């Protein structure tokens, strides 16, 4: 039986989420299906670009967090239980 692989399978392969057996089958499919190979190469490029993204919070967001932590204790005292 011939297994047909989807773009989802290729994405799992790019992120190393396939079993060794499945990886071999996907590699065979990539060699025989030019459209799948094109998608694979684009997915690799996109993964590399995404890995370079650096995000930083705005200064006022950091300040809000610092102000909140200054005004609220880290470990508030436990409430006494009435028995």
UniProtKB/TrEMBL annotation:
Q: Which domain of life is it from?
A: Bacteria
Organism in which the protein naturally occurs = Spirosoma fluviale
User: What name does UniProt use for this protein?
Assistant: Uncharacterized protein
């Amino acid at each position: 039986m011939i297994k047909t692989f989807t773009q989802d399978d290729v994405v799992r392969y790019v992120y190393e989420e396939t079993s060794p057996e499945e990886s071999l089958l996907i590699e065979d499919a990539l060699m025989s299906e030019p459209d799948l190979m094109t998608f694979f190469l684009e997915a690799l490029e996109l993964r590399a670009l995404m890995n370079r993204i650096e995000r930083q919070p705005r200064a006022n967001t950091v300040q809000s967090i610092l102000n909140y932590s200054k005004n609220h204790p880290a470990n508030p005292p436990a409430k006494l239980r009435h028995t």
